[in-house]
Every structure is written in C-alpha cells, then in structure tokens.
# Entry
Amino acid sequence: MTEPSPASKHAACGSAGTAVIIPHFNQLEYTRACCKSLDGQQGEACRILVIDNASTAHAPAALTEACPRGEVIRMEENLGFAGGVNAGIREALKDPGIRYFWVLNNDTLCPPDTLKHLRESLDRSPRTGLAACRMIEGKGTQDEKIVAAGKRLLRPWQLPVPALPGQEPDYLSGACLLIRRELLEDIGLFDEGYFFFFEDADFSLRAKQAGWDLAVSELALIEHKGSATVRSLKKMQARCYRAGHVRLLRKFTCHPVLLSLPPFLFRLIADSLKANLAAVRGNLGGMYTAHRQPPPTHVAAPIRYAPPLPPEIKNNTQILFASHQTGPELPGYLRFALTCLSKAGYRTSLITTQTEMDALSRNFLDSLGVKLFLTENRGFDFGMWDRYLKSIPPAERDSWSRILLINDSVVYYRDRFDHWIRQAEACPADAVSLSSNTDYGYHLQSYFLYLKSPAIPVLESHLQDVETVQTYWEAVMRLEIGFSRKLTEAGLNIEPLYKTNRPFDFCYEALIRSGAGFIKRKLLEKRYTFGQTLNFLRNDRRALDFKYRECIQTQGQPDPGFDLGWLPSPNPTQLNQIYWRILYYGWSLMVTLTLFALAVFPAVMIHEKVHSFRLALMLSIFTGTILYVTVSKLRRLSKIRAVKAPAIQEHN
# Structure
C-alpha cells in the first residue's frame, strides 16, 4: 500500500471533521463524478480518501487527476469492499480531529445537503452509531425507483429484504453510510473475511449487539447507479454473494449448514434452468470456499486515538513482570519483551523464581535497568506480585500512580507495549487488560493488566489470601476471576482492549491476522490438560490443532528484532500427541454414537408394539433431531450465561 497524497491536496477542505472513504476499482468515470459531487457539501469540511483497490483499467496517475481534492491510497492487491474501506479508515483514524467516517460507493452522486442531513440523524442520540439514507436507482429510465437504505434479514435464513416504512432495520446499506468514531473504537472495523456482499450487514449486526442504534435519514436522498461495481464483478458475483451469505450465517446463527442449504439449492436450480453455468459454478465455489474457511471470529482491535503519556504518569508507572524460570538463561522472547519495555522508558521489575541465573542474563538486565527480584514459586503469578509488593517500602509504593501486571504465559512477538499502555490510559476504565475471558465467568486476564490509581488498593487487599491457593483451578477462580469481581464490587470499571464474545483461547487466529502481536504459550506448546482438551473439542476443534507458528510467520507481522526460533515448540512426547489426537478425532464419534443410541432405543421399544420398521425409523430420526436441537439450545444458553459481564458504567 502506498502513502497517501500530500496533505496540501486537501488543504482547501479546511479542518476536516469528517473523512469520506470511497473504494475504487477500475471505474474511473464513476469515481470522478462522485468526487465532483462532494465539492458543494454544506456544513463542515471533509477529507476525501479514494482507495484504489489495485485497479488495472487505468494508470494510477489518472485517478489522481480525476480526484484533485482526494488523497489516493493505492492498494497492492484487491482486498474487496471491506479491505479497501478499512484501509481508508485506518489512515483517517490517525487524525484525532476526524469524528465521522462517511463510507460512499464510487457510483453515487450526492446533493449538497446529504452530509448535513446524515449528521443530523446521527447526532440525535449519542448512542446512534450508524446513519444511512435512501437512494434513487436507474434515474431517468423507466426502471427508476427509490431504494430503502434499511434492510431486514428474513429469518431464519438471514436473507436481505427491504425494510418497510416504520420497521426497524436489521442493517444499513454500505453504499452510503455515516459512522461515528466511537462506534469504530468500540466494535472495530469491517470484517475483511467478506470480499463483497454482506459486510455491511455484519457491521450493523455487531453494532446492534454492542448496544448502538441505527438511523435512516428521511431528508437525505442520493443517486445510485445501481450496483455498477457489483456488475463489474461478472463471474465473481455469485461466488462472492454465496460466500458472504454463508459467512454471515456462521457468525450469527446456530445451524449455518442447514440454514444455508435452502437458498443455495433454490439459486442452484434457478440458474441451472436458465443454463447460467457461470452462476452455477460461482454458487458451488462460494459454498465450498465459505465452509472451508476457519470459523469466523471477530475481535475488536483497540483503535482509539491514544496521545503520548504525560511525563508525571509515565514516570510513576511501575511494571511488574512475573516469570517462572526453569533454567539459568532468560528465553529469547522474554529478552525481547523486556527490551521493548526498557526502550519505551518504563520502570520494570522482573519477578522470577529462585533459579541460579547466569552472568549473561544478569548483565543483560543491568544494561536495561531492569530490577531483578527472586522469590519462591508458590501462589502463582499473584503470589509473586504479592511478595514483591510487600518488599517495597510503603512510601515508595504510594508514589506509584499506575501498576502494569505482566506474566510470561504469553509470548509478545511485536513491540506494542507503549501502544497498549497509551490505549489503556486513554480508556475510561480503572482496570484495563488486553483481553477478557468467559470460560468460567467474565474476567480480565492477568497476563497484561493495567491498573490505575483507584484499582491499586483493591489489588493490595486482594493479595492477602494468595498463599493458600495451590491448584490452577483455584488460581483462576479465586485470584483472576475473583480480582475482577472485587474491582466491580468496589464500583470500579473494567474493560479489555481486544473484545470478543467468545472464550479468548479460540480467538488467537483472528488476533494474529489483525497484527495484535501476542499469543499464549500454551497454544504453541500444545500443553493441555484433559479438561482443557475437551473444552477445545466442544467449542472449536480447529483452535486445538491450528498451526499458530506458521500463521505468525506469514500473517502476524512479527518485529524484525524477534527471532521466530524463540517461539516455544509443541510437546514432542509421542504419548502426549497420541493422547490428544485420540480425543480430537474421537469426540465427534462419541457424541454421534451417544445420540444415535438414545434415538434408536425408544424406536426399538416402539417397533415391538407397532410392527412397523418405517414408523420406528421415523420416530428414531425425530427423537434424534429433538435431542440434537435441545442439546444445541442448552449449550447456547449456557454460553450466554457464561459471557454475561458484570455491570459496567457507560461512558460517552
């Protein structure tokens, strides 16, 4: 991706409060007309970013000439609608003055009052995160019509239909969409797993799940050429539509395979009768591609604007890095993390077990100015933090305005520490972590936990009973989950930077692809107990056997100073591999046989009385279906109860 045009290009726009994001692919005349229609927009100035999705029909300079007021961002490859829009949003987010993001198709024409009316609809409530408007399609032809911006999803197949007047829409069309900055900071960007189609539905549904409202302006009306970009996809259109629809079903429904079959078969039969072989191949290819992809997992990345920390906060921030050493030499990934923290200028203490450390490691710590504290290996990480805090004079502890708790259960392969700390400081919560978990109850995970002044006394009181904790289960329930509960009971707010509605162990693939820069050692080492293995099998078997090392190497963007050889390797014990492989492949077979046995037993009993094998078979299938649906519903309800978060005060 190339750098945008110089800022002087949009100097005439003034101090922009709205960024206009226009994805472009090949259709130069449409984009030229769209940019020209923005010249007379009423209200505040806007900054125009045109995202060239690797166009091949014209030279890059031609687009720059066609949009003299716009900044052109050239993509190296065509990432689709979501990928192009995200590139523009990321660039605009660097400017803290941008409060609104106007996503606009390149085949639209906007009257002078469009942005004004969209802003009015958005500003009616602070919890309205998205606004759209109606569109005229086919203007000047006999097919001219007004298309509603709001769409509803026909249940249970999630098929889009226009929302009637007075109906609340499920999602808003991405052809013209005004987005509030706070919404992006809350739920993240568009899901780039959709190449084209349904990315706007996905974004709107995530916004509604997070408690945001959608608005449709009744006064704004734009001209739309009628999906000119869609028509330009040609053979790819059917494939993109089917793949997007299945992905939406996989993210927001319980039975995506069953629900995707009726519309897929209907479309397949209709295209076959029309002898439209390209559409038939596209539907088959889209279905195959969508189901081959990993289970969609959205993780909202921290994209808040985070200014540099004031010196008084940075100088009074203490970082406590807990590490359970097993040898005399510090691991390479731990050296990398300590170097990054020291380079950022934070005071760091390495708290580790009483292992004889070699001279090279001690000299390394001295060169960074990292304080070394040796302690006993009991009480888990909280025990190490407790013993360290008790060794510090009260007067020195009282001078700390921030404490960052870190442990080595996570490998940090990117230098994001200063970024994360600034994000946590900009966050209004009193205790901020990189992630939260929902396995046994909502809680902040303690491998990176940033505590502001109100939360520090709660930590000190919470550490009083850590010496009595002796098992991993007790540590999770009493120390980690218990600490989050104590924070909320004290009236404090807690919040993760990376948000998801799933247990976090199953989201690391999405984190790696987003460039988050950290991963649990347990996943790399494949070091699981029996109960943890079953948890993976019940929720997401792919996460158990996923090749995280290769994904980090190819898509995780590790820093140049990080050696991939530092990543922990899987447990080489053959017996261990056989053990979890048996569980991995045997779990589905066990569940299937159990359901089959439960279904067949009543059928056999009935068969002796009714003397009809056909009736017995039908009853067997019916019973099995009821059992399967019941179990699925119960599992879903249990997950909903598990992810129910504690009350968190709302911040505007």
